[in-house]
Amino acid sequence: MAAGEALGAARYFRRWYKADVKGRPCEDFCVLQHSNRRVGGTICVITLAEAHPLLQRGKTITGVNYQISPNCSRLQNKVSGKSKRPSTEGYIAVVLPKFEESKSITQGLLTPEEYKEVLLKRQHSSSGS
User: Fold this and answer.
1) Number of folded domains in the chain?
2) Partner of 17 for a Cys bridge, out of 73, 99, 115, 116, CB 3.0 to 4.6 A?
């Protein structure tokens, strides 16, 4: 990650975390919430958290299937706006929730400090301490 990318993400995005997504241990997501709350809602970029197993074990993601159904492919979605890349190698989704939904978007998500505590607990339980 380039230093400029990290500074851009820190400046424009607030990080939130969801641990053990869908009950799968250690499969954590990071939600980057853009600081510029638009009239229609707030832009959220969903990525794999830094501690996700795919990013820890030297694995390479070779492809992502965006075909939702035979008649719906998310590759057809148009994305516009400034080209500021978040601090990860890529993203899973870019979401623009409705304004009413954006108020509660962070309910159930962890702050970076809370997520660090989750990671420490995992480390202690795996080391037998």
Assistant:
1) 1
2) 115
